[in-house]
Amino acid sequence: MPGMKTKKLSKKEQLCIKCRKCCEKVGVYTDPAIYEISEKEVVLFYQARGATVTKSDDELFIVFDLPCPHLSKTGCAIYKSRPTICRIYSGLHEFGDDCLWSTLTKKRVASKKTDVNRAAS
């Protein structure tokens, strides 16, 4: 709308919209001990359904290609009114370096190291 002010997106929001990893995939943790079959059989079960399975500590992380129904070619069709979970969710734990937010963390760590080195000089 003409004359209407729009909020400028933060760097984090821009990366979120660009990445879409959390919008294209669904990741869940499961404890293989709850099944009455071996861990290997649990992994094979999910892999046979197209999931990617990785082990994290004593849990399995299962990722399904299951896009959000609000994901469009240009990003989230309901970004401004997206659910709270979408607003607070961080893919860093689940997707690590595949989540573009990780670039912010690396920049912050590199910046802190530079600040420490300058202070020590």
Characterization of this structure:
42% of the residues lie in helices and 18% in strands. The chain has 121 residues and is an alpha+beta fold. The protein has one domain (11-120). The strands form two sheets. The protein has a three-stranded antiparallel sheet with strand order 1-3-2. The N and C termini lie far apart (53 Å). 9% of the residues are buried.
Q: What's the helix and strand layout?
A:
Layout: H1 11-19, H2 21-24, E1 25-30, H3 39-47, E2 52-56, E3 59-65, E4 71-72, E5 75-76, H4 84-88, H5 92-95, H6 101-120
Antiparallel strand pairs: 1-3, 2-3, 4-5
Instruction: Report the sheet with the most strands, covering strand number, pairing sense and barrel closure.
Output: 3 strands, antiparallel
Structural class designation: alpha+beta
Q: What is the succession of H and E elements?
A: HHEHEEEEHHH
Our count of domains comes out at 1
**Total of DSSP H or I helical runs spanning 4+ residues:** 6
Percentage beta strand:
15-25%
Q: Please estimate the helix content.
A: 40-55%
The poorly predicted ranges are 1-5, 108-121
Which features does this protein show?
single chain; about 120 residues; alpha+beta; 3-stranded antiparallel sheet; two-stranded antiparallel sheet; about 20% strand; disordered N terminus; disordered C terminus
Short recap of the structure:
This protein has helices at 11-19, 21-24, 39-47, 84-88, 92-95, 101-120, and strands spanning 25-30, 52-56, 59-65, 71-72, 75-76. By secondary structure, it is α+β, with helices and mostly antiparallel strands. A hairpin with a 2-residue loop joins strand 4 and strand 5 (75-76).
